[in-house]
Design a protein that fits this description.
There is one protein chain. This protein is mainly α. About 50% of the residues lie in helices and about 10% in strands. The protein has five helices and four strands. Strand 1 and strand 2 form a beta hairpin. Helix 3 crosses helix 4. The termini are far apart.
Length: about 150
């Protein structure tokens, strides 16, 4: 959002920009971040896909600059619990309406998105020749991410 001069959280303004323009900007920003960051760089999975009903591939040549992809995930029920905790603390998610959808529908939606992301990670890994590792985390996200970073820097 900062790249386009938009206010943080102004998703309606961001959504009004053409998808190709947003993906192109992501590629430039990611290339700059990867080449300018010594050591490991943690990127959110949404940088591999653009969240729509069906995910849109956002990958590009920047992926070949990565040494590896680590897909850190958890069960759909655990992610739902984390999202509900986030919602209680005031953090919202664009793609999931916690108030409107029944818990079973949310968990099904999360599980479906996880399957799509996992399959997409496999395609990205094969296409760009970047190894992929999956880490399942049912506990604290922060400590698992720190442990994965420790492995990558060892």
């Amino acid at each position: 959002m900062d790249h386009f001069g938009l206010a943080p959280g102004d998703y309606s303004a961001l959504d009004s920009l053409p998808l190709r323009q947003r993906i192109s900007a992501s590629h430039a920003l990611l290339t700059e971040a990867i080449t300018g960051t010594p050591g490991p760089l943690l990127l959110d999975a949404h940088l591999l896909t653009f969240e729509r009903v069906e995910p849109v591939d956002c990958g590009g040549p920047w992926i070949s600059l990565l040494r590896g992809i680590v897909l850190l995930t958890a069960s759909a029920a655990q992610i739902d619990a984390r999202l509900r905790a986030d919602a209680l603390s005031g953090r919202t998610r664009r793609w999931l309406d916690l108030s409107a959808e029944a818990r079973s529908e949310r968990v099904d939606l999360i599980a479906r998105r996880q399957r799509l992301l996992s399959a997409h990670t496999d395609r990205v890994s094969a296409t760009w020749g970047v190894p992929a590792l999956r880490v399942t985390n049912e506990g604290d996200v922060g400590s698992t991410a720190t442990a994965v970073l420790g492995l990558l820097t060892a």
